[in-house]
Amino acid sequence: MASTTSSEAPRNALIIGAKQGIGLNLSKKLNERGWHVFVTVRSLDKDKASIESVSTPFLQGTLCSLILTLLTWRASQISQVASQIFQVDFKQEETIKVAAGNFGTRALDLLVVCVGVGPNPMDTWEHSTEILMEKFQVNTVVWSIFWQSNISRDALQRASAGKVITISSNLASLSNTQDNRRGGSIGYRLSKMALNLLTVSLSRTFSFEQTSITVHAITPGGSPLQ
After folding, report:
1. What GO MF terms are annotated (predicted)?
2. How many alpha carbons fall within 13 Å on the CB side of residue 104?
3. DSSP secondary structure string, 112-165?
4. What's the rounded Cα separation, in Å, for the pair 39 and 86?
5. Alpha-carbon distance 203 to 95, whole Å?
6. pTM assigned to the model
7. Out of 3.40.50.720, 1.10.3720.10, 3.40.50.150, 3.30.559.30, which CATH number does the structure's domain 12-218 have?
8. pLDDT in tens, 90-101
9. How many CB atoms are located within 10 Å of the residue 144 CB?
């Protein structure tokens, strides 16, 4: 993506899940290129309360202090690059509606959803119904909730050429025998396969509706979470 020039209006990006990893670093890069970056994170206060509730003296002392320092650093990193931060918990639809209202009538040039849960457990036989449902809720169903809020579709249509990026995985490929030779991580694979189908379906829907919105799937490979 080219940098914006002084004669161009800054473009708007919405990064879903920007507290760490891909979301945080993508936010930094877009900010460096002159974009207005809007991000979502879950409440850092909730993370802090969770950590401070640990009972062992060691965790309350040394390790707790280190983790809280990391959380504070992450928050400062996000604050430095974001035009606005929305606190969103995708298991609570009401927080999505609030974010949609706060985003207002801006045009959205780029939407990237980085929120997700990883491939563990690796063992197929360890997958309970609860684990499978969590994978689908966070990796796939989160998209339908977001579209229903209209924050993305309407805002993308207000841009001249809105783009949607979904984060896929080699583990969701039916033809990639190298990454799929051992099986396993079935919940993660299924949820990402469903996301791939959603990506194709959204792309065709926007094309059929004759909008300028395009949808793309990318696979970043193994990515550090920090």
Report:
1. oxidoreductase activity, acting on the CH-OH group of donors, NAD or NADP as acceptor
2. 4
3. EE-----S----GGG--HHHHHHHHIIIIIHHHHHHHTTTTHHHHHHSSS-EEE
4. 6
5. 26
6. 0.77
7. 3.40.50.720
8. 777 788 778 878
9. 9
